[in-house]
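So, can you check what follows?
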Amino acid sequence: MSKGKYQYNHWKTKDLLRLTSATLFSILIGLSSALSNAQVPQEAINLKTTESHKTKSPTIQPSDESQTAPTQSNSAPNGEDAQVQEIDQLIQLLQNPERRAALIDNLEELRDTTTVKENPDILKISDVLVVDEIATEVVKDYTKFLSVFGLTANQAGSFLLLGISIVLLLAVVLSNNLLASFMHKKLSPIRRKLSLNSNRFSPLFRLQRWLGYFLAALLVIYTASELFPTSVGIFVSKDTLIEFAEIALALFSVLAIFISIWEMINAATEHYFNTHHTSSNARMRTLVPLAKNILLFLLSIMGALVLLSELDINVMPLLAGAGVFGIAVGFGAQALVKDFLTGFTVLLEDLLQIGDIVKVGGRTGEVTNITLRKVELRALDGTVYTVPFSDISVVDNLTKHFSYYLLEIGVAYRENTDNVIQYLQEVDKEMRESEEFGPLILEPLEVLGVDAFADSSVVIKARTKTKAHEKWYVGREFNRRIKLLFDKKGIEIPFPHQTLYFGEDKKGKAPAARIEVQDDSHDNKIEDTHTKKEESYQ
């Protein structure tokens, strides 16, 4: 385009972007100015005009009549009398030609100073796009739209500010959540280095998120009460919200402190167990969970007391009431108290541990869980037994430090027992020399000798010492190898049988036994028939 009055050049992409942004900015400025003009009351406009007139106009010496008026107005009370006096002063000003001419000159001077002389050679984007006219039309349409819902411009502005505040608070909450996630991920290398759980300290970040949600909701309510004092403010006052926020921050701080203590304790125990390889220690695996449960109970009680004290609640009456309640529970729940006392004694004396095979309360199984009130057993078939400590009078621990597998071998009366004992020792030697079973056997086989004469066998008793939980595994292999060796050596292992006795007559002789012989000629005929058929096929 050739250079003309406005000297246009060829526009580039940057120029178009600048024009677009300037246009949008001008539209926003026009909308805001139009809204502000629509919301300004007429009294404020009159007051502004009067003040500008006073600042621009020179000092006019009042006449004698006008000098007496301020004295009267000062003595007159506020209200309608003051307004009447101001009207009289204005009439006197207009009646005086000199003062009226001075007033007109001052007004013309004010008009000249407020009028901006525009350079006709400069092109304004607002003039090209007719921003003022567009903004005025938009404001008119917007006012009509609000009138449909019965809203004024001030109310619409309040709703707009509330919406903007909600959007900003949502952005803050999202930033807080992103910060919590970022810190949680940053702790992952430290967790791996210290051999901690992957979710360790995550409750702190979860508390951080909930604190952000709570404060955002509280600020929304506070903003609504400020923007709508006649509707929302009557239900919740600003002082109440501020006090509630202070209490909430104190509560969250207390929770953060106690959660940090609990997480640090868990982290210390996890690091100790994973680095010192004490997880195989059954006593440690038994006592550490109990200690953690007791510590968690104490921390919960202390945290509750601190929270109540932060709420300005006197905790001393509560402690006294808790003491009385504890005495009442001690009398009313004697079985529960007995469970705790018995459990404490059993654990203190190390009668059983997690992983032991025990028999308590008529139930046998592996100890899987222990609390101060009960013990859980899992039987061989998977059944879980829960036995309260109050029902435990005797503890049969089958795997305390080591175990014995008892062998009771029955042989026929005709067998040489010395040879049988020698065969048992051969089996034991073979077992101890085995790579699979040798490490499980602690001592050579202890043969106790001939233990009993049974109805049809001679019982030889022996036992082998094994590791705590390996007695059944070793014992089953012993039985298998003893059976194979006895079969090889021809040692008879008798089985239960009965001898029939027909009694005696008066002369001391046994009565004749009635024997019936069945004719199996029919079976023989069938066998002969099958034989002939086979020969004919051949």
